[in-house]
Amino acid sequence: MSKKFRALCICIFVLLALTLSVHAQDTSTLALVQERGHIICISHSGYPGFGFLDEEGNFSGFDTDFCRATAAAIFGDADAHEILPASSADRFTFLATGEGDVIYRTTTWTLSRDTDNNAQYAVIYFYDGQGLMVPTSLGISTIEELDGATICTDPGTTSELNIADAFAARGLEYTPLPIEDDEEAWNTYLEGRCDVRTTDRSYLASYASTAFPNPEEHMVLDITISKEPLAHVVRNGDDQWLDIIQWVTFALINAEEYGITSENVDDFLDSEDPVVRRMLGTEDDFGGKLGLPSDWVYQMIKQVGNYGEMFDRNLGAGSPLNLPRGPNALWTDGGLIYAPPFR
Amino acid sequence: MRLLRPNLTLRRRMALPVAPVTDPQTNVLPPAREGNTALRWIKENLFSSLFDSVLTIISLLFLFFALRLALDWVFNLAQWDVITENINILMKGAYPSDQVWRIWLGLYLLGAIVGINLRAWNRELNRTTIAIAAIPLILALLPFASENARINLIIIQVTSAAAYLLTSILGDKRRRQLAAVMSILYIPVFILLLEGFTDEDGIMPLVKSDLWGGLLLSVLLATVGIIFSLPLGIVLALGRRSRQPAISALCITYIEVVRGVPLISILFMGNIMLQLFMPQSLPPIDRVVRVMMAITLFTAAYMAEIVRGGLQAIPKGQYDAAYALGFSGLKSMRVIILPQALRIVIPVIVSQFIGLLLDTTLVALVGLFDLLGIGQAILSNPNWLGRSQEVYVFIGLIYWILATSMAFASQRLEKNLGVGRNYDESQ
Questions:
Q1: Which residues of chain B are in CATH 1.10.3720.10 domains?
Q2: For the segment A107-153, what is each residue's pLDDT rounded down to a tens digit?
Q3: Residue from the list B97, B281, B367 with its beta carbon closest to the beta carbon of A57
Q4: ipTM for the complex?
Q5: Which among B198, B209, B271, B280 is the top mutation candidate for probing chain A, defined by the most A β-carbons within 10 Å of its own β-carbon?
Q6: Is 0.95 topped by the overall pTM?
Q7: A104: left (phi over 0), alpha (psi -120 to 50) or beta
Q8: Coil, strand or helix: which one is B368?
Q9: Shortest Cα distance from B366 to chain A (angstroms)?
Q10: Which of B358, B89, B170, B331 is nearest to A52 (CA)?
Q11: Which domains are assigned to chain A?
Q12: Fold of B214-421
């Protein structure tokens, strides 16, 4: 065996060993995050209301607030987070490679995504459905009248697949016009190059009311072609981390249910209600069960606010989008937002 | 063809200054001309014949209608507050506001270095030198510059002027040494300044490169790409011409593989795939560094072919002469062949650099916030939904200014080095 050949063999062996070590991942995500000193959330580089850069260069939005709340729960400091902007296609890779700890990025929970991507869906935090927007001048009111239409879609999203399903199920034809950039898709629709713009209903309505020159010339058809439950996602196989991500959202929802807000949370510290006491960590150490500090809920509410406050600030009445709560109201108000109890 | 001819004469007349021409047959100067020069220029260049007059009028009408709509949009319809409100993130991305002084400090240094270089390489002040030196002042006068930016830009201007004057104390040779050393050191110093040192709360805490964005990131990516791709390209070009089959095969493979795939796929490879092949025990490579590597490696392959073109243009006599003088291979390459070869290909190298600057916009697709990425991020802020025209026109203007200044700089460099002089003289 010549010297060169032996050197080559060693090189190949080292490379193989390095490649194989990718799969040897056993440390818990929480320990990793705590050692790093901040959490890395995979999120949007720009999606109105959910995640975008504000004028100061800080990330802002509904998804960003979940990231801040998680940082507050783990470290007691909402700023101990980092946003890793990702496209629709990148997000699962970033999660799988460990570059990010959790996906807070309007991700629709579907069966194939749950099983394909080595990803574990934690909790639904926003209920949406896909709608169809058309110019009022077309005089269309049902999906059947759209036979042969050109439709602007977002590539790589569930909405692209849903529209195909909806048309196939009814035996209708259409021409898809996939456009990656969201703003570009809107312009294409406004220029009339496609007859229909389809994406989540909430977004259709809020974008039209804020950005269209003449919002009254467009309408969202009274049909919802798909369920779009947006959920948080973590890696498979780390149950503690899954619990943490789930209970961060559950706690935010429970806080709204009990009327605990960032303004009045300090008043609740001497509350007699055992549920509130358990939540805020003044009785029983529920945080400890998750591996978190006992005041984790207090820190989240104090620094970020409850679910309702987050919604209002980013999507609802407190934002230019002015989205109604609709299905995202608490179950007590006839909505779908429901969390398991603190017990 | 006959139709085209008047056009050509028109263009040539517009391009060349009107000067008295000696009639070659009689060797007599034409009579001196009198009258209002502006009016004469208009008559000679725009209305010299019926055909010219018709063309001029049609063009003016066309310009009027085209520009009227454009100007109406710029001054009446466009809502420029989306730019003025977001000017900070357009310039620096998510770089923390309380650390921005570091960027300004880097720019003061840049001003000083420009001042030193202008003094070192130009014997006297001319119009171009003054135009370059006054860039900060011009920027400070722009309508959308903030109070803070104006003050800082004026400080840059003062630093630049002070450096220019202080350098005058030194002798000619010293000046050039100082200019060269400072220029080489500048980029690493600037990057260190941006990055900071430690995670603790010192004077300069670490600012992760994920936060760098906007024009800052675009220019930085382009600069790093330009600085590293040229030497790498030269090495690859020399390697491709090497007589060692292993080396030349390696270089040819590299060049052809890289030229065979689009930049965006290399960026995706670097950004997404690379991490899959790396052991997770190692910390992930910085995302900006990954992108810098991808851009540099990509451009180097093209640069190699450009340099090889230059090397092939050098006549064999030059190699023989160097050999006859007893120069080693390396030395003849360094002092005889390469300087000539690179001089020939300056125009192509610069257009490659301009291409590289514009290609940096692709990094927006892998989640970095370069100038274009910031533009897209602004457009998803609910406060600014639907302002895409204003944002994209502004970003396009910035790229146009950058690319055009590079083109002008290259023309000036060519003039200084005397590239293409033979061709000009023969005209």
A1: 214-421
A2: 999 998 888 878 999 999 999 999 999 999 888 888 889 999 999 98
A3: B97
A4: 0.79
A5: B280
A6: no
A7: beta
A8: coil
A9: 7
A10: B89
A11: 128-228 (3.40.190.10)
A12: MetI-like fold (1.10.3720)
